[in-house]
Amino acid sequence: xRFDDVVVGKAGTYWIKVSYVSGDARSVDVCANTGGATxxxxxxxxxxxxxxxxxxxxxxxxxxxxxxxDSGPG
Length: 74
What we know:
Blueprint: E1 2-8, E2 12-20, E3 26-32, E4 38-42, E5 52-60, E6 63-70
Antiparallel strand pairs: 1-6, 2-5, 3-4, 3-6
């Protein structure tokens, strides 16, 4: 999943809040712009709920950014 035009006024590390539901622990690589991806593992929420949230850090440049979440194939 890719988010284009993530705009910030000042370069730095920002926390992105992610809401999700998953019966199993799920790993995702998070990347901003052309930087290297950082792997994060989200804990399971149970079979059909509740919705959980986690915050992941990303380093953004001033102005427009692209943030990508990649959980691999499947």
